[in-house]
Amino acid sequence: MYGQALEPVHAFCKENSHNKEAPNQQNKLCNRKSTWEVIMNSPDMKTSTPLANTNIPDPTFSLLQFKDRVVTLVLDVSGSMGSFDRIARLYQASEVYIMQIVESGSHVGIVTFSDVATVQSQLVKIVDTFQREKLKQLLPKVAGGGTTICAGVRSGFEVNKGYDGSTYGTEIVLLTDGEDSGISSCHEEVRTSGAIIHTIALGDKADPGLEQLANITGGLRLSVTDKVDTNGLIDSFSRIISGNGDTIQQSVQIESTATTIPPNQCLTGKVTIDNTVGNDTFFLVTWTSAIPGIVLRDPKGKEYKDGQFVSDATSKSARLTIPGTAEKGDWQYSLCNTPSGEQVLGFTVNSRAANPNVAPIIAEAYMNADTASFPSPIIVYAIVTQGFSPVLGTKVTATIEAQDGTIKTLELLDNGAGADIIKNDGIYSRYFTSYKGNGRYNLKVHVENQEKDSKATGPKSGALYLPGVIKNGTLFANPPKPKPNIEDLNLGNFSRTASGGAIIVFGVPSGPLPDVFKPSKISDLSAFFESSLVVLTWTATGDDEDEGNATRYDLRMSLSSELVDNFENGTAINISSLTPSPSGSTEVFRFTLRDITIKNGTVLYFVLVAIDKVNQTSDPSNLARAAFFLPAPESGNSANSILGTGNTLILTLVMTIITFYL
């Protein structure tokens, strides 16, 4: 399908015409099945009834036009919001959203709900700080009453109609911590509204049907626990940016961290303002008990202390906004706790693009599904880009927080192995298998490049270039293939954080979990001859999918390409001397073959499986092929004089193992 210029391509390949040996993505990802086999085995084809009437209806077109962003905050102020300091955290995070995150030119309203819904503010167009301050004063500070989610949603719709009389294309940010047995009563209104509802589930008792409102409307599904040392609520609000694709106007989260600090101890670190951002930059310090001592030093050594920050006792935060464009480079910070007792201190940095003609570096995070049933693994993704260019070579760390507050940290990789499909495409991936019970799991990623060679590389076409075509026996030459712009842009130091939403997990058994996750498939096995040696290389897999270390390998060889379908019938190669390396490492295995006659043109096929500590085996790897060809004989030096009569080579067993660690 990559050869669009080939005229004979008029149908999907079938089993009898598919080339199973081609080293392409079709064979790698679809287990060597043809396109038509994949289609016929898809759920759509298996579960759909063929149409009796093949008349295709006439298409309809809708002309859409860009308009201002319209968003209403619909906030739960029921009695349960008074526990775990939730109402204060709500005020703090929504204040950040109004003051710094929502884009200028947006129309913003506020609705609160408990037993009934109350409009706190009709739509206000954000022009400058005056409107932001006005809205901030209307944010809720007191909790009480029951929970009627649909009343809040309906009120939000009415507020959004204040823009042009319609809810179509408008947004609602819906936050709640409670359950409402009547939440399904407004599903049809939500479905026909044309609005987008972003949901934030706060705590472990938020209504299990909340995410359905986001699913119906295509909104974000966000989840926050009651742990305040993760900055989860601020991160969730920071994620809700405009979806119009204008990254120049969007707020970019540079840093977000929080931790519990003992008395008289300090939270220190640095954050980098890179070349792509710097406008509308703010540094936010948060606390849970008392304002800490603050020292912020810019790259030129200028210091900003707590007296220069604008503090707000209600939101328990202090903000420093940098006028113009912030200095490029590393900003050092130190937040020192008071002697009175330990507390959680947080530090958040947001900025916008420095140049309207230069796209900022953006990080996005998500998971492969909205729900997961144990023991299905979850795939975690992070996309790092600058404009349309993928950003390569950066360190990406994912934090997955279970509903009970348990945290699992994973390094995401862009190596084309395990959960990652394509190497060096700017999409970093990893499997998550560390389940800690049922409920919501939320995701956050941190992207960092410090003293590494991260670079943005231009997108490259995957289409096949044809130098010419033959029509009716006549060759028609095509223009020369244009040279792509392959200059990579070194990006220097930078950092980003991003919330990746929530996934709902069910079916996790109580008690210790069984080891049910096998090693992930090795998908990049390659083989070649190096003089008299056969060399195999691959990326190490893990014990549980692509995490940890496999226990051992099983390597098979054959003269037939059917080896991948008949693995057990292949010739076993002794690979016991190789101890599997940590997942993601590059492994090299060199050996010669015992009592095997290799002739000119001999082709050997190899398949590898990994085995974990409870003897679970991975799926067979991709099919690797090594072909032995003799060079053309030079004058006075024949192949026979090198190899002996018959052009054969008798090989004996020798092994060399090399392991590279990332």
From TrEMBL:
One GO molecular function term of this record is:
intracellularly calcium-gated chloride channel activity
Q: Which Pfam families match?
A: CLCA, VWA_2
> Which GO CC annotations does the UniProt entry carry?
plasma membrane
Q: Which residues cross the membrane?
A: none
Q: What sequence ranges are listed for the domain VWFA? A: 70-240
Q: Which Gene3D superfamilies match?
A: von Willebrand factor, type A domain
Task: Note the InterPro entries from the entry.
Answer: CLCA_N (IPR013642), CLCR (IPR051266), VWF_A (IPR002035), vWFA_dom_sf (IPR036465)
Q: What is this protein called?
A: VWFA domain-containing protein
**Protein's organism:** Eleutherodactylus coqui (Puerto Rican coqui)
